[in-house]
């Protein structure tokens, strides 16, 4: 990896780590969900960076892809388990990091995902397989009496690309991609008290432009113009300055212009914990760009 590119990844990681730590301190019983989201997202811009995706704030059994809606009236409650997942880019080079804040009594579950991440990072080096990283994650979580979320994975990162090879499983598998020097990816273990599999909810707040096919409706064209500057990075429904986004965005999904990310959830009444860091594989280990 060229030095200037490495420096941009490191800059993104430093910013992400700082802001995630600040955001973690904001999660308190009675605090406004929308206020937290807007404050953290605003901090990224003030640091001279961009959002790689809308801040994900997922509660309890929800594992991923929730964020504030316009006028969101939720407040954090006693007993909530709160996942903060932040993506920052600096000139397109991405840092993806997450932590879990326990407002209840789920410290062992939180420790499971945190320690699974730490142990997996310890084994990142050229020649290691992603399948073995998955085995390490699964072992750390299961030995504490919980389940890893099998159908969520870590993922490669590239310039203005949040999901690419290699895929880092959260369960053991034979073989898989072999790590090479210069690879950049996020490892993100999820531990759960539920089934170990997530499914899609009806709630949809995050979208991504995947094409620029012609559309006839002026409001649809306006949406595509607004999101084009994202260069394919995801955006939040609340960012769109158009009325009736509940109709416009699904129509753009049907036309093949947008992809939607529904909230992903384990069974009702369960709890899911998440931790995540971005790493760059070096000749004898890795650099963790998002570790403060």
Describe this structure in words.
With 292 residues, this protein is of the alpha+beta class. It folds into two domains: 3-198 and 268-288, Creatine Amidinohydrolase (Alpha-Beta Complex); 203-263, Winged helix-like DNA-binding domain superfamily/Winged helix DNA-binding domain (Arc Repressor Mutant, subunit A), CATH 1.10.10. The chain is built from six helices and 15 strands. The protein has helices at 3-26, 33-46, 107-122, 130-142, 218-228, 245-254; strands spanning 50-59, 62-64, 81-90, 93-102, 147-148, 154-158, 161-168, 184-187, 190-192, 199-209, 235-236, 258-265, 272-274, 277-281, 286-288. The chain has a five-stranded antiparallel β-sheet. Strands 2-12-10-11 form a four-stranded antiparallel β-sheet. A three-stranded antiparallel β-sheet has the order 1-3-4. A hairpin with a 2-residue loop joins β3 (81-90) and β4 (93-102). α1 (3-26) runs antiparallel to α2 (33-46) and α3 runs antiparallel to α4 (130-142). It starts with a helix and ends with a strand.
